[in-house]
Design brief:
Strand content: 15-25%
CATH topology of the largest domain: Rossmann fold
CATH class of the largest domain: Alpha Beta
Strand order of the largest sheet: 2-1-3-4-6-5-10
CATH superfamily of the largest domain: Thiamin diphosphate (ThDP)-binding fold, Pyr/PP domains
Order of helices and strands: HEHHEHEHHEHEHEEEHEEHEHEHH
CATH architecture of the largest domain: 3-Layer(aba) Sandwich
Largest sheet: 7 strands, mixed
Number of domains: 2
Number of helices: 13
Distance between the termini: 48 Å
Number of strands: 12
Shape: globular
C-alpha cells in the first residue's frame, strides 16, 4: 500500500499516540469507508485528529467501551473499515463483546488500545494495562500487534487497514525512544525483525522494550558475548519459524516485555519452544500490578526491565546452557 512507503523519518519525532492520530487521518484520506469510534477519549488517544478532519465518520459513544465495540461491529458488518480506539485498560471491560461480537463472528474490527503497559505511570495501577496481550492473543482469529515506537505505530495502523480479520493494536502514551526509523526492514504483520544476529543467546522483545533490549545487547557484546536481538511486533500470529531458528542457533532465549509474564509474550514464545526445540528460557516483565510513578522509567527500574538487568539475566542463562 502506498501509505506504507511514507518515510519513517516523517513520524520519527512523534509520540505513539500522535503517530496513531496521524495514521488514522492518512487512512481517512485514502479510504472513504474508514470510520473511527471512540469512548470519550478522543483527545487523549489522538483519535480526535480523525474527528476534526472527518466529523461525519467519527463517533463518540461516551464512556461506554462495551457499546463502542457493539457499534464498531455493526458498522463493520455493513461494509465499513472500523477502528475502535480507547485506553487499553478500559477496553478490557469490553472483552466479552470483543469475543462474542467481533472475534467469534470474525468481523474485521481494528481495536486500538492506547496508554498500555507502563506508559500511564502517573495514574497508577488502575490505568496500567498489563494483561491485554494475554487476553487478546488467546482469542482465535485475533491478530495482536505491539509496535515498538511511533514510526512502527504508524506502519502498524496503516497495514492493519487491509486485514480481513479482527485486530488488536497495543500502543503507549508518550514516553518512548523512537529507533525503528533507523532500522532497515519492511514492516510485515506476522514477520519478526532480526535487529542483530548472534549465537550465544537470543533476546526476543516486543513493544516499547526494544530500545532497552538493544542496550542490553550492547552491554553483552562489550563483555564478549554475541547475542541475537529479534523484535516481534506481532504477537499473534507469532513468527514460529524465527523462534525455532534462534532456539536451535543459540540454545537460550530471553524474552522482554512491559506486560505480565504470565500469559504474555514470553508465555507465547514458550508455547512455541516446548513444541519445536526446547531450550532454557528466562521471561522478563511484570510479576504484579504496577503502581504510581513519576515516569515509566521508574516502573522499568522497579520491575527489573533495564539494560543491566537483562544483560545479567542473559549471562546467567548462558552459564546454565553451558552446564547442560
Amino acid at each position: 500500500m502506498s501509505l506504507l512507503l511514507r518515510k519513517k523519518s516523517e513520524v520519527s519525532e512523534l509520540t505513539p499516540r500522535d503517530a496513531l492520530g496521524k495514521a488514522l487521518v492518512d487512512l481517512g484520506e485514502a479510504y472513504p469507508d474508514i470510520i473511527v469510534v471512540t469512548a470519550d477519549v478522543g483527545e487523549a488517544t489522538r483519535a480526535r485528529y480523525f474527528g476534526d478532519r472527518f466529523p461525519d465518520r467519527y463517533i463518540n459513544v461516551g464512556i461506554a467501551e462495551q457499546d463502542m465495540i457493539g457499534v464498531a461491529t455493526g458498522l463493520a458488518l455493513t461494509g465499513f473499515r472500523v477502528y475502535a480506539v480507547a485506553f487499553a485498560m478500559f477496553l478490557m471491560r469490553a472483552w466479552e463483546q470483543v469475543r462474542n461480537s467481533v472475534v467469534r463472528m470474525n468481523v474485521p474490527v481494528k481495536i486500538v488500545g492506547t496508554h498500555a503497559g507502563f506508559s500511564d505511570a502517573y495514574d497508577g495501577a488502575s490505568h496500567q494495562c498489563l494483561e491485554d496481550i494475554a487476553l487478546m492473543r488467546v482469542l482465535p482469529n485475533m491478530t495482536v500487534i505491539v509496535p515498538a515506537d511511533a514510526p512502527e505505530v504508524y506502519q502498524a495502523v496503516i497495514a492493519s487497514a487491509e486485514l480481513k480479520t479482527p485486530c488488536y493494536i497495543r500502543i503507549g502514551r508518550d514516553y518512548v525512544q523512537n529507533i525503528t526509523h533507523q532500522l532497515d526492514y519492511e514492516f510485515e504483520i506476522g514477520k519478526a525483525v532480526v535487529i542483530q544476529d548472534g549465537s550465544d543467546v537470543a533476546i526476543f522483545t516486543t513493544g516499547m522494550t526494544l530500545p532497552i533490549a538493544k542496550e542490553a545487547c550492547d552491554i553483552l557484546r562489550e563483555r564478549g558475548y554475541y547475542p541475537a536481538l529479534v523484535h516481534f511486533h506481532t504477537v499473534s500470529p507469532l513468527d514460529v519459524h524465527t523462534i525455532e531458528k534462534y532456539a536451535r542457533k543459540t540454545g537460550a532465549i530471553v524474552t522482554v516485555e512491559e506486560h505480565l509474564v504470565r500469559g504474555g509474550f514470553g508465555s507465547a514464545v514458550a508455547e512455541v519452544v516446548v513444541q519445536t526445540y526446547s531450550v532454557p528460557m528466562i521471561m522478563i516483565g511484570a510479576h504484579s500490578f504496577g503502581r504510581s510513578a513519576r515516569s515509566p522509567r521508574e516502573l522499568y527500574d522497579y520491575f527489573g526491565i533495564t539494560p543491566e538487568d537483562i544483560a545479567a539475566r542473559a549471562e546467567e542463562l548462558v552459564r546454565v546452557r553451558k552446564r547442560r
